[in-house]
Amino acid sequence: MANGKSMTVGEMVALFLAPDTPLRVDAFDGSHFGPQTARLHVRVTSSRAIYQLLAHPNEIGVVRAYVLGDIDVDGISYANPYPVLRGLFSLARYVRRPSAVDAARLVAAVLSHGWRTPDVPQTEGPSKFARIKRGLLPHSERADSETVSFHYDMSNEFYADFLGPSMTYTCAVFEDESMSLEDAQANKLRLILDKLGLKPGERLLDIGCGWGSMVVTAARRGIRALGVTLSKEQAEWANEWIRREGLQDLAEVRVQDYREVPEHDFDGICSIGMMEHVGVKNYQSYFEEMFRLLKPMGRLLNHQITISHDKPDGRPGQDEFLDRYIFPDGDLGAPGFIESCIHDAGFNVVHQENLRQHYALTLHHWCENLDAHWADAVRQVGFERAKVWGLYMAACALNFELDGIQIHQFLAVKPDRVGHPDGKWYPLRPWWRA
Questions:
Q1: Beta strands at 32-33 and 23-27: parallel, antiparallel or unpaired
Q2: So which residues are the catalytic ones?
Q3: What residues form DSSP beta bridges with 302?
Q4: Backbone φ and ψ of 392, nearest 5°
């Protein structure tokens, strides 16, 4: 880009970063920014990246350019880009806002070459507006079925590449940082069942049961466990697992919306990593449904990702990248709001804890697993989608570490309004091993 109106890519970058920024940018037009000795070397490989960022000057523009290879980083692991993300985050103090005149110069320089509509990665899903235009109102049963399928019905083998043998797609609970992922996932399942305090023969409903790890673990204890999911691939995997273990008399997984479960009077309900799909506006009705399905003195264990602070405008905690590429219609609520919804549904909330650091550790293990099985992951879902998932998990690990998001377990009891002075309702203090 070298005419009267033109500006090199290096000059464009200099509008947004201080001159002493420890970052090297090498561009397709032969221009550069920053010292050759910088630890991070970003390459802008194509003019398409400029049009992406001009069309979407937010995370969507960056993600599209990265996924399509128009922006790259020397030495990056596509399965585990966490070190690069951590390094880029450290540069935040060098970022500056260009003046209105400089911004206009940049736009004019790009448009002097004509406008080119940038490509969209094949892995990107439709926008929220496009889904609504098709009649998929957020969190209607039809919309939930399609969005869950978008996220989960890719390839069970792909998920196995990074989840490992437990096929447990939620935060593990570590006794210390040296604990293996498998042991930490088993520890999480043990903790939840211990909190629920279910005995052999009692009934558990697992809402959003995934590939069945909780259902199988509960059945091994003699608990009668029903799991529901909207993913056909998950249900097939889970029921095959149940058959292999000979637990058909105790365990079952169905493709069924939680709002359609005909049974009731469960002794316990767990919702592990499910609420991210429910929608903040539906939290109250969700917990009211849990209250209806439980018997008096039954227990609810809700385990979900939360945002650290309510957004000032009341919008849910979701960004466009997650909505387009990972969790369509997903959103997050703050822990105080969630606890209020559980309480207002009629429950007694008896315990809650924040496992934020545990999810960061879990995600680091998943990224390491994805890196170790990268070739198979690409075979299962393609290079672009595998690349998206490496970015997603690494970014989430960083976000948990920075306390942008958290994860909470809430334990609640459905009271019977009679009172139990003999202590048979539940013990005076936590009864489980932490």
A1: antiparallel
A2: 396
A3: 271, 410
A4: -60, -50
